[in-house]
Amino acid sequence: MSPTQFTVSLLLVLLLRPSNASLVPRPQQDQTLSLKTTPHPQIQYHNPKLPPRSLSLASSKKFEGSSDLVQLRYHMGPVLSNSPINLYLIWYGRWASPQKLLIKDFLLSISAASGRRSSSAAAQPPSPSVAEWWRTASLYTDQTGANVSRAVVVAGEHEDVACSHGRSLTRLSVQQVIATAARAARFPVDHRNGVYLVLTAEDVTMQDFCRAVCGFHYFTFPSMVGYTLPYAWVGNSGRQCPEVCAYPFAIPGYMGGAAAGGPKPLSPPNGDVGVDGMISVIGHELAELSSNPLVNAWYAGEDPTAPTEIGDLCEGLYGTGGGGGYIGQVMRDGGGRSFNMNGRSGRRFLVQWLWSPVLKACAGPNALD
Ligand SMILES: *[C@@H]1O[C@H](CO)[C@@H](O)[C@H](O)[C@H]1NC(C)=O
């Protein structure tokens, strides 16, 4: 570690200290700073203190900030280093076009716009961007020294509007959903670069959804799908449990709520609590899928059946100064909508940070140091 890196880590350690540390007294519930560095005058930084999301999900996996105690280790397996990562989307249940476009705009924002600067400079989203956020995921390597790919494309889509395997899925039946999609004519089995993303509509339930998971990733079994393919599932929690899985756009009501003068949920950047909330979960799962696709590469903890991965370590953290109930410094636009990164087509997103193997701390493109 160079002296500069050390200073940066030290700064992060200090900045990410939980707010109850005596070092940084924070009397207010919502800190607002107007900084000259914000790109537009109407954009402000704020660091809201919110009640924690569900009790069940605030598990021991959640870790805020930075510590030498986090032993994230490499277990010799592959990472998704082939370029580009080909995403195959399975829309399960009824999805509105604007919702699909929003999710695809996020996925397509992960790749930094390519080379031709002169023509694409205008199209390049301003910093902090989704592509800069993904840079943290691309710092993970396998034993050959190959990094997680920086390029992510949507290579195919399949619609299962009628829910071929019912509206109540399990961890196993979601593999049948993938098998059914993979038999469709224009939906290939891509062994080399493929990743399968099953996105369920808000009326579809999933085993453990809302109680223990908002999304998960794993790989398919040859006995069920015919092949071993990395996949992730993320559900739209809008109707089932937004205060759990679309946090912080919905928060638990037990603190008395906004009406009683309690903290208010954040306003979602694209006006859709369920889908804006899904975006951060999709980011979390994709980052973990890429650094731990067969669950034998990057994770912390001794138990491979309950690995703590690079998204788990930073759940609920969206900016500098998060922890102890604060989500971190994020931006708020003139309409009061919160976000922490920019994407293609002028989109804005609020996405959780990822654990950096270089900084040994949670990192994101909107860090204020
Ligand atoms: C690959 O990962 C290593 C180790 O984290 C990092 O130092 C390097 O900059 C990465 N390379 C690319 C091209 O991202």
TrEMBL record:
Pfam families (UniProt xref): Phi_1
Record localization: Secreted, Extracellular space, Apoplast
Compositionally biased region (Polar residues): 28-45
InterPro entries: EXORDIUM-like
Signal sequence bounds: 1-21
Keyword Secreted: yes
Primary location class: secreted
Entry keyword set: Apoplast, Secreted, Signal
Transmembrane segments: none
Ranges where the record places region Disordered: 25-51
GO cellular component: apoplast
Recorded family membership: Belongs to the EXORDIUM family.
Entry protein name: Protein EXORDIUM-like 5
Species: Rhodamnia argentea
